[in-house]
TrEMBL record:
An annotated Gene Ontology molecular function: L-amino acid transmembrane transporter activity
InterPro entries xref list: AA/rel_permease1, AminoAcid_Transporter
A Gene Ontology term for the protein's cellular component: membrane
Protein name as it appears in the record: Amino acid permease
Membrane-spanning residues: 7-29, 35-55, 84-105, 117-134, 141-163, 191-213, 225-248, 272-296, 382-404, 410-427
Cell compartments where the protein resides: Membrane
Pfam (any one): AA_permease_2
Main subcellular location: membrane
Organism of origin: Novosphingobium fuchskuhlense
Length: 447
């Protein structure tokens, strides 16, 4: 069984502060320029607040399916079923976004290595490690986490040394790169999307819920782990990213660079330091992909066990290694479908994975309903209730509005996610009214 400290390490590695800063930061800087500072500050606040909802729900209903067992008990399958299917659609681009981030940094050392091969190789090796016993996987992840934190410290130190007070104006009046040679004021819609993306990059405390079955005395201990992880992660991600923006000297060149974070380090540190940091980033991304695969494979396994999909797919997802007890069938599915998603491109992957409006909406409704019905555990409770769940419901509306305002990409992403959710909802209702058995979403123990 895992201790709270080991679950914390797994969770921090899955949400990966270095990945969020160096890979997510690059994407948000491309999207909103210096408005990325607002994105990370506001987004980090949102993510830390959302972690409280995950904490209360997971303390009341711990299970391998993450938070969906709680939603099923409180709100019922008619709402949980579309939530689960929507998260399934998102998980494969999420995994791909992590793996694609390793390509530019690996090619710094192996310039002849094709990008596609780097992505697929990362996924394959991560799947092999994720298929080992969970404690052994946690030990590998902890080793990588040390390198990850060193990379963050170097970026923070370089930013503090080169801090420029004048750059504060770029935060309140953000600019972004229209092209390599041109900058302009960042559109408000892009800054709004940066807040959503920043919340996604700082989020991830709920990864702890996927390991609840492997944690000793989870019902009593999982809530504080999730809540504290949410706060710590938001701070560790927002501070280095914002400091970097406040230390940029050549703004146009940095914002238009393929990897703005790496470009900043090249200009502010020596080549060997930049190379060492790049190695740390590779380790961080690889670490992130391993932890994400371990968590998502357990969610897919729980879904297959609950009969969410058709029988042949459920049979594959239920497959468990007799030796390590790892969900090998789910890992294979993640490897195949996750490896097919990188063709979507950076902007689509970011907006698709960060625009899950249903999460904020249903988590907020679940806590409100659960409290009113007396269904929530006493082990962890959000203070100032009902402020947090009400804010979550309002946030879900804001996510849809911000995505819809971006006609280029955000509208397509929001349209796809809304279509999946609404279709799944009506399919479940139609099946129920036709007398077909509804899916029982329990998220119970690994077989």
């Amino acid at each position: 069984m895992l201790s709270p400290g080991e679950v914390f390490l797994l969770t921090i590695s899955a949400l990966s502060p270095v990945f969020s800063v160096f890979i997510g930061g690059n994407a948000i800087l491309h999207l909103a320029g210096t408005g990325a500072a607002i994105g990370f500050i506001c987004g980090g606040t949102i993510a830390a607040t959302m972690a409280l909802l995950f904490a209360e729900l997971s303390a009341s209903f711990p299970g391998a399916g993450g938070v969906y067992p709680a939603l099923n008990v409180i709100l019922g399958p008619r709402w949980t079923y579309p939530f689960v299917l929507l998260r399934t659609v998102i998980m494969f681009p999420l995994l791909a976004f992590g793996a694609t981030g390793v390509g530019p940094y690996i090619r710094l050392f192996l310039p002849m290595l094709p990008e596609d091969l780097a992505v697929l190789g990362t996924l394959a090796v991560a799947a092999m490690i994720a298929s080992t016993q969970i404690r052994r996987g946690a030990q590998v992840i902890a080793a990588f986490l040390i390198l990850e934190l060193l990379a963050l410290l170097v970026l923070t130190g370089a930013a503090l040394i080169h801090f420029k007070t004048a750059n504060l104006a770029l935060v309140f009046n953000p600019i972004y790169a229209v092209s390599r040679d041109s900058i302009a004021s960042a559109p408000p819609a892009n800054v709004a999307l940066a807040v959503i993306a920043g919340a996604f990059m700082a989020a991830g405390a709920d990864w702890a819920t996927f390991f609840a079955e492997d944690m000793h005395d989870a019902r009593r201990r999982i809530g504080p782990v999730v809540a504290w992880t949410g706060l710590i992660a938001a701070i560790c991600i927002a501070v280095p990213a914002v400091l970097m923006i406040l230390a940029i000297d050549d703004v146009p060149a940095t914002l238009s660079a393929e990897a703005p974070m790496a470009h900043f380090l090249d200009r502010t540190t020596s080549p060997w330091i930049s190379s060492v940091v790049s190695l740390g980033i590779i380790a961080a991304i690889f670490n992130n992909v391993i932890a994400v695969m371990m968590a998502l494979s357990r969610q897919l396994h729980a879904m297959g066990r609950d009969g969410v999909f058709i029988a042949p797919i459920n049979a594959i997802l239920r497959s468990v290694s007799p030796r390590t007890r790892a969900p090998t069938g789910a890992l294979i599915v993640l490897l195949v479908l996750g490896g097919a998603c990188p063709f979507l491109g950076e902007r689509r992957l970011v907006l698709l994975t960060s625009a899950n409006f249903s999460e904020c909406l249903l988590l907020g409704l679940a806590v409100l309903t659960g409290r009113r019905a007396g269904m929530m555990s006493e082990h962890f409770r959000i203070r100032l209730h009902p402020l947090v769940p009400v804010l979550a419901v309002l946030l879900s509306v804001s996510i849809v509005a911000a995505g819809w305002a971006d006609a280029e990409t955000g509208r397509v992403s929001i349209g796809l996610l809304l279509t999946v959710f609404v279709t799944a909802f009506f399919w479940h209702e139609l099946s129920r009214r036709m007398g077909r058995a509804t899916v029982v979403l329990t998220g119970s123990d690994l077989e």
